[in-house]
Amino acid sequence: MASTGGRHFLQIPGPTNVPDRVLRAISAPTIDHRGPDFAALVSELLPALGPVFGTAGPVVIYPSSGTGAWEAALVNTLSPGDRVLACDTGQFATLWAQLAGRLGLTVELIPGDWRHGADPAEIGARLAADTGREIKAVCLVHNETSTGVTSRVPAVRAAMDAAGHPALLLVDTISSLASIDYRHDEWGVDVTVAGSQKGLMLPPGLGFNAVSDKALAAKESAAKESAGLPCGYWDWTPILAANATGFFPYTPATNLLYGLREALAMLAEEGLPAVFARHQRHAAATRAAVRAWGLEVLCADEREHSGSLTAVLLPAGHDADAVRRIILERFDMSLGTGLGRLAGKVFRIGHLGHFNDLTLAGTLAGVQLGLQLGGVPIKPGGVESALELLREATG
Ligand SMILES: Cc1ncc(COP(=O)(O)O)c(C=O)c1O
Questions:
Q1: Confidence (pTM)
Q2: Which residues have any ligand 1 atom within 6 Å of their CB?
Q3: Quick one: which of 72, 114, 115, 108 has its CA closest to 91?
Q4: pLDDT in tens, 277-293
């Protein structure tokens, strides 16, 4: 690739740019993970992690990608043949459902058009119809990274409660945690699945499960009946026991944990409400640019626009990947590709994590130039529309 000078713009919707502060923290010498300094690190980390999930309960940390944390949520709580309800809201919801199927669960998938979030009424109807209480869990992706659509978790919880159904609620927050308002305890979520590489501003490599009392009880009762899914490496029990004394039952990702401590400090300094408002503001400015260009945002429901990313639909006959290629080659910026059935039709602008007004201005300038160079018919003025919004709106 041609050298452009300056810094690469990593504007995919995760992994995101890692702040220099976090990179420096990660570069500290690795320590003995069975020694007192490590125990001190863990005892500082775990209490700081809960507020980001909105929980006073335990958060399990894995040296894994988000997919590992998906698997952990399932194998800790469910038994072979259990029925789970999932919504086809996008590529990641589909992948999680497929993983559940491979683990021996029976998946009931509510179809979707990938332009809307999960439909609380449909979930409620499916649960109400399940008079035999065969559905043991609802799997929900909070923010669909493939579409830029955020499902309304409290509305889904309310629908589950209205149906009086005891299923667990498992929520993937891989591209929403620490970017979009999220409250594990208050919203009655049983397992929250997360990863390090997006709103937490870390490199890939850590997976998380925040766990409710109900999820722990489900695990315990499945274990008592020797009925649970095979669960070795992912088993919460030995991890939580070791965490209580500041350790892990395996070699943890020490240097990523240093980075996590620093990232949590940065989030606490800014304050979560300000972090969420910043993301919403950048998302709104991005949509202003897209609409001023005369293009369409993929998300079709005003209540469900993602704060983390925006998926932009290209007019028929224009290849989104060709535009992405031009932008990478000419301006050294990476944008997200269209995934699954959206391949070639959309590109995705990541505006999450370590990101500010001028990062957005640069990002949108690169997109506008790339669209023009790629021969996509757009109106000029998209960047100016975003800047106008940034000028007016305060965090
Ligand atoms: C919403 C969502 N869920 C799950 C995953 C899978 O996570 P990983 O690629 O870290 O395994 C991703 C990855 O981007 C994601 O965005």
A1: 0.98
A2: 14, 65-67, 92, 141, 145, 172, 174-175, 195, 204
A3: 114
A4: 999 999 999 999 999 99
